[in-house]
Design a protein that fits this description.
By secondary structure, this protein is an alpha+beta fold. The chain contains 3 helices and 5 strands; from the N terminus they run αββββαβα. It starts with 6 loop residues before the first helix and ends in a 5-residue tail after the last helix.
Length: 112
């Protein structure tokens, strides 16, 4: 039995958490509500944008990993997630702008 929250519920929890933290969040693409993968597009003032998703560390434990173009160029990041979405229509893309975005995501959408 899988005890993970459905993706749609986890994304809604992240949206509420970021709102409570005074940040902004926008769901750019909705995927499968039960089991879609989530790409997190982290925006920070004066910093390059970054993409994250759930992955594994070297010991095989779940963690948040950076994905996509290294440049942080907004156009390259959009191209990247749109290509991913074309090949995986179940993919969610969530743009966030809040302090400590990775930790908040790890507690909600990337939690086991």
């Amino acid at each position: 039995m899988n005890d993970r929250l459905p993706t749609g519920v986890a994304v809604n929890a992240l949206v509420r958490l970021i709102d409570q933290a005074g940040g902004s969040v926008m769901v750019l693409a909705r995927g499968d509500r039960d089991s879609g993968i989530v790409l997190l597009l982290v925006e920070a003032h004066g910093e390059p944008s970054l993409l994250f998703e759930r992955g594994y560390d070297r010991e095989g434990r779940r963690c948040v990993v950076r994905v996509g173009p290294e440049s942080g160029d907004p156009h390259e990041l959009v191209d990247y997630w749109q290509r991913r979405r074309r090949s995986d229509p179940d993919l969610w893309v969530v743009e966030v702008n809040v302090a400590d975005a990775q930790r908040l995501a790890a507690e909600t959408i990337f939690a086991d």
